């Protein structure tokens, strides 16, 4: 029995650069190579299973870039609970980088998303983040 038994050629559909509805699949607070605080936002275009990472670095353009993201996904200005952003739907202009990989060129404002085709597949929904309840006594822990 060989590892190649049952192999058949399978190629994934390639997305062309353009405007797409996208959903946030992951958000992480981290530090850039230059040492600046940074948000890494992963988005999934409608009708695909690929993830594209977008970087928002705390620099001169931070406020503009974060405003663009929040306006596209309908995230309130005061909402900085990044776990609750997961599942939010917005739109982005996707372009190829110099290596041929898709990247987010910019996010499209909510007011300008009306001409985009409807979401393909299961409609994303925002994750709900709940606070932790205080335990009255550590003896209530199951371990």
UniProtKB/TrEMBL annotation:
InterPro entries with a match to the protein in the record: DUF669 (IPR007731)
Origin: domain of life: Bacteria
Protein known as: DUF669 domain-containing protein
Annotated source species: Bittarella massiliensis (ex Durand et al. 2017)
């Amino acid at each position: 029995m060989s590892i190649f038994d049952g192999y058949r050629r399978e190629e994934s559909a390639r997305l062309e650069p353009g405007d797409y509805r996208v959903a946030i699949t992951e958000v992480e607070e981290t530090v850039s190579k230059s040492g600046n605080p940074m948000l890494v936002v992963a988005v999934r275009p409608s009708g695909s299973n690929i993830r594209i990472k977008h970087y928002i670095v705390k620099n001169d353009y931070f406020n503009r870039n974060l405003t663009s993201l929040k306006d596209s996904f309908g995230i309130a200005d005061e909402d900085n609970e990044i776990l609750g952003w997961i599942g939010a739907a917005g739109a982005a202009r996707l372009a190829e980088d110099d290596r041929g990989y898709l990247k987010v060129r910019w996010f499209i404002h909510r007011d300008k998303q009306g001409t985009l085709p409807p979401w393909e597949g299961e409609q994303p929904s925002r994750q709900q983040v709940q606070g932790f309840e205080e335990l009255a006594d550590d003896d209530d822990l199951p371990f």
